[in-house]
């Protein structure tokens, strides 16, 4: 299992196949399709768990007292399976949707925004996904 430690906000984020960012949004990362190689960006420090030890520690979780130890490590600067990307990822935290409104003639309002929702797993600079609930009209992040 891989994670990133943000050297800016100290947040630790587990990597998934979709891009995830730290609390401040300056560090991000994701797994590529093979589930082994990862791409990270920003001033992120990649971390790893020994998966076998982690699973054993979870399985032997005690009722009280000290839990089992497992190995976690800092992934070196040069690693065949971690690529450092210099582009900045855009998330709803770093780049929230800007929605302008126009008053409707018979009351209410019409929201207008750019639709950044297109997303592909292999897109080098993933963008946030958005969805609108037709019933309520609310806009939310969908991925
Ligand atoms: Zn951060």
How do the helices and strands line up, and which of them pair or pack?
Elements: E1 2-6, E2 12-14, E3 20-21, E4 28-31, E5 38-41, E6 44-49, H1 51-59, E7 72-74, E8 82-85, E9 100-103, E10 109-112, E11 130-132, E12 139-141
Parallel strand pairs: 5-8
Antiparallel strand pairs: 1-2, 1-6, 3-4, 4-5, 6-7, 9-10, 11-12
Bound molecules: zinc ion.
Compact summary:
By secondary structure, this protein is mainly beta.
Task: Looking at this protein, list some descriptive labels.
2 domains, 1 helix, 4-stranded mixed sheet, 143 residues, binds zinc ion, mainly beta
Description:
It is a single chain. The chain has 143 residues and is mostly beta strands. It has 2 domains: 2-85, no CATH class; 92-143, no CATH class. The protein contains 1 helix and 12 strands, in the order E-E-E-E-E-E-H-E-E-E-E-E-E. The strands form 4 sheets. Strands 2-1-6-7 form a 4-stranded antiparallel sheet. Strand 3 and strand 4 (28-31) form a beta hairpin. The longest helix has 9 residues, at 51-59. The chain starts with a strand and ends with a strand. It binds zinc ion. Zinc ion (ZN) binds at residues 6, 8-9, 11, 22-24, 26-27.
Taken as a percent bin, the fraction of beta residues is 25-35%
Number of strands: 12
Helix and strand sequence: EEEEEEHEEEEEE
Helix content: under 10%
Alpha-carbon distance between the termini?
A: 21 Å
Give the spatial strand order of the biggest sheet.
2-1-6-7
pLDDT averaged over residues: 85
Low-confidence blocks of residues: none
Label the structural class.
Answer: mainly beta
Number of helices: 1
Which ligands, by name, code or SMILES, are bound?
Answer: zinc ion
Shape: elongated
The structural domain count equals 2
Radius of gyration: 20 Å
Major sheet attributes: 4 strands, antiparallel
């Amino acid at each position: 299992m891989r994670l990133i430690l943000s050297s800016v906000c100290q947040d630790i984020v587990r990597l998934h196949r979709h891009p995830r960012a730290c609390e401040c949004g300056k560090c991000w990362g994701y797994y590529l399709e093979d589930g082994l190689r990862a791409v990270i960006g920003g001033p992120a420090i990649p971390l790893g768990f020994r998966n076998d030890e982690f699973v054993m520690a979870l399985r032997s979780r005690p009722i009280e007292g000290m839990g089992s130890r497992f190995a976690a490590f800092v992934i070196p600067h040069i690693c065949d399976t971690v690529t450092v990307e210099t582009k900045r990822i855009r998330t709803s935290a770093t780049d929230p949707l800007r929605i302008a409104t126009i008053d409707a003639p018979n009351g209410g309002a019409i929201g207008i925004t750019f639709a950044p929702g297109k997303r592909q797993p292999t897109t080098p600079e993933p963008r946030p996904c958005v969805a609108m609930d037709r019933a309520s009209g609310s806009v939310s992040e969908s991925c």
